[in-house]
Amino acid sequence: MKEYAYQLKMKVRDYECDLEGIVNNANYQHYMEHTRHEFLLEAGISFAEMLEQDIVSVVARITIDYKTPLRSRDEFVSCLNITQEGVRYVFHQDIYRASDMKLAAKGKVDVVCLVKGKLSRCPELEEKLKAYYPEV
User: Is the separation of the CB atoms in 23 and 12 below 8 Å?
Assistant: First the structure.
């Protein structure tokens, strides 16, 4: 497993599985979102505080490649790295099945900020995230 800025351990719940007994594809997006939110909290970023400053972050695009299915009660590790490309904050997210560290899903999530209603860079966010950007 490569190095990541943030990792979160989770466990598949029965109701997240479909009739085939594997995690429904939509739930991987939930896992990735939960991982981003926990990461941002750890980085000192609060959505409530951002809203008070009229800053709204929104997902602009998500792509997910499904590799190995997760099943009920599987433990897994949801990981992310973050880069910035212009006004986009790009989360590179991977999910590994904990029992054998096989890659279950690979995602790329583009997030943008609306500052006072306009698409813009967000210095407040950049200041808190820069410590997590990869060394160039």
Answer: yes
Q: Are 39 and 5 in contact (CB under 8 A)?
A: yes
Distance between CA atoms of residues 77 and 95, nearest Å: 6
Q: Find the catalytic residue in 14, 18, 94, 110.
A: 18
Give the helix, strand, coil percentages of the chain, each rounded to 5: 25, 45, 30
Q: Spell out, as residue ranges, where the chain has pLDDT lower than 50.
A: none
Q: Residue 23 gets which letter from DSSP?
A: B
pTM: 0.93
Collapsed DSSP state (helix, strand, coil) of residue 107: strand
Q: How many CB atoms lie within 10 A of CB 77?
A: 18
DSSP letter (8 states) at residue 21: S
Question: Counting Cβ atoms within 10 Å, is residue 132 exposed (0-12), middle (13-18) or buried (19+)?
Answer: middle
pLDDT value, residue 95: 98
Q: What is the DSSP string of 69-84?
A: --BTT-EEEEEEEEEE
Q: Catalytic residue at 18? A: yes
